[in-house]
Amino acid sequence: MADTGGRRCNSAGGTGRIGRRGHAEAPNPYARWPNGPSPRYNPTYFPIGVWLQEPDLAPQYRAAGINLYVGLWQGPTEEQLATLARHGMR
Hints:
The chain is an alpha+beta fold. It folds into two domains: 1-36, no CATH class; 49-86, no CATH class. The protein contains two helices and two strands. It has helices spanning 58-63, 78-86, and strands at 49-51, 68-70. The two termini are 34 Å apart.
């Protein structure tokens, strides 16, 4: 698609702007909470998590589509956080 140059649009729920690929840009639903669930808004990220699981299992969970750990047993410790960061978990 051609670059729209930021023309205005009237899509319901949008920002009123057209992005580089010709689609209406979605508003940041977390903008009113500066420390909210996604302070670095990424519209392609949807949290799918596990609860109190072993960080060493992160590669297997990542392969299954998991991208978030919620709670760490007896932690979080620096070692647990480093393991999760190494495997791209949040």
